[in-house]
Design brief:
Blueprint lengths: L5 E4 L5 E4 L7 H7 L11 H9 L5 H4 L4 H5 L8 H11 L8
């Protein structure tokens, strides 16, 4: 059974429909998307999840293992290759176990 989508309005007045409890406004997410850097390559949920955890630089990202990153709500397996490549380009890597 599909969940009903309900109309929501964010604090900036954008109207959008969501079927989950996620409060994220798609219009605001698009406006807040960085133009460059590793965060710009991620989906909105993944980007928001990392920023919410305070992981906004590759140096901070390199202090976590892949398993720890995957445990963060909003991060899925599709984000890992993007993060791995971004770290490698900066001469960094995920923390080993």
């Amino acid at each position: 059974m599909k969940a009903e989508k309900s109309l929501r309005v964010c604090e900036k007045g954008h109207k959008y429909y969501k079927s989950s409890d996620c409060p994220s406004c798609p219009t605001c997410d698009q406006e807040n998307k960085p133009e460059s850097g590793f965060l710009s390559k991620l989906s909105s949920p993944a980007r928001n999840a990392l920023v919410h955890e305070g992981i906004d630089t590759l140096q901070k990202l390199s202090m976590y293992t892949e398993k720890e990153i995957l445990k963060i709500h909003g991060i899925g397996p599709a984000s890992l290759p993007i993060l791995r490549i971004s770290l490698e380009k900066a001469g960094l890597s995920f923390k080993e176990k």
